[in-house]
Design goal:
There is one protein chain. The protein has about 180 residues and is α+β, with helices and mostly antiparallel strands. The protein has a domain of about 100 residues. It contains four helices and nine strands. The strands form two sheets. Strands 1-2-9-8-7 form a five-stranded antiparallel β-sheet, with no helix packed on it. Strands 3, 4, 5 and 6 form a four-stranded antiparallel β-sheet that branches.
């Protein structure tokens, strides 16, 4: 979703959660991911698109080359879980690793669409009040936020990259506490 960097803005300048609007000049190229008759970015459509890409990649996977990875493309399997599930914030992939050391190891991977958004000065000053401003530039990543069901189209701030930045600066003994 790097292609959406700086192409979206919040519909509410004093957000906690808000809708994302595709900026003028980019609306036509991103219209497939917006609500009909508007330029509000739909996190549901983005998650469906990511799911479709994962299904296509799974179908093209050369299973002879990757014999240790197993997954089922059907909706439900008693041994293996569903390959792809939509979650509140993204998409979950479940595969089974059948190696020599780990036999039938179920691996669950969460993929969350994150979009970099430039903050308005009011929003940026609000972050400053919380002491985070020195850790981020005027961009923030937002992720889907679902509070009332699958049709909510709000996004919320994600500080996962800030957390990575903080973790890199911690001494090894302190990092060990988080593992």
């Amino acid at each position: 979703l790097v292609g959406l960097r700086d192409k979206c803005e919040f519909n509410d300048p004093m957000w906690t959660t808000a809708k994302l609007l595709v900026k003028e000049g980019y609306q036509e190229s991103w219209s497939n991911f917006c609500l009909e008759d508007s330029y509000i970015l739909s996190n549901v459509k983005l998650k469906k698109y990511i799911s479709t890409l994962l299904w296509k990649a799974a179908c093209l996977l050369d299973r002879r080359k990757y014999k240790n990875i197993r997954f089922r493309l059907c909706k439900y399997d008693k041994i293996l879980h569903t390959f792809i599930k939509t979650t509140k914030v993204g998409v979950n992939i479940t595969v089974c690793w059948c190696g020599e050391k780990y036999k039938n190891l179920i691996i669950s991977i969460d993929l969350t669409p994150a979009i970099s958004v430039t903050l308005a000065e009011k929003q940026f000053s609000r972050i400053h009040k919380h002491g985070v401003r020195r850790l981020v530039d005027n961009h923030i990543h937002v992720i889907p936020y679902v509070k009332h069901g699958e049709h909510d189209l709000e996004w919320r701030p994600s500080f996962s990259l800030t957390e990575v930045h903080i973790m890199k600066k911690l001494p090894r003994k302190q990092i060990a506490l988080y593992k």
